[in-house]
Amino acid sequence: MVEPAEEQPLGYLLHRVASTLRNEVTATVLDPLELAFPQYLCMRILSKAPGRSNAELARELSVSPQAMNIVLRGLQGRGLVARPTSVASGRALPAELTRDGLALLKRTDAGVRAAERRVLGRLSDDDRDALKRILAAVGVD
């Protein structure tokens, strides 16, 4: 017997949708660009908030600073992210997307939107837009 959606835990439902969307985006958009999902998320955050440190990015993506450092180094190695070698005070190195990073991120936009439409294909355009508005409203600190 299938449990009604209203009775299923929200966390489970969110996880199911997030996993499906991640798999679709990775297979159809990111893999052809040789970009990992954590790298994509890091670039997306830096496009909205340039200058974030490794620690800030790690907190936002709920990964360890060590894991985020690997992500950032991979992006730096491809010339998609730039960080200074040192800073005047403190140890945090602010990361920013390079022109190549911004261009690659822009190339993902149409594919990511198409993946969203495929995953959420059972919803009307209005319902899809409402879902995004709701998730954006509750995901704010």
From TrEMBL:
SMART domains named in the record: HTH_MARR
- Which Pfam families does the record associate with it? MarR
Domain HTH marR-type: where? Answer: 7-140
Question: An example of a Gene Ontology BP annotation on this entry?
Answer: response to stress
Give this protein's Gene Ontology molecular function annotations: DNA-binding transcription factor activity
InterPro entries named among the record's database cross-references: HTH_MarR-typ, MarR/SlyA-like, WH-like_DNA-bd_sf, WH_DNA-bd_sf
Q: What is this protein called?
A: MarR family transcriptional regulator
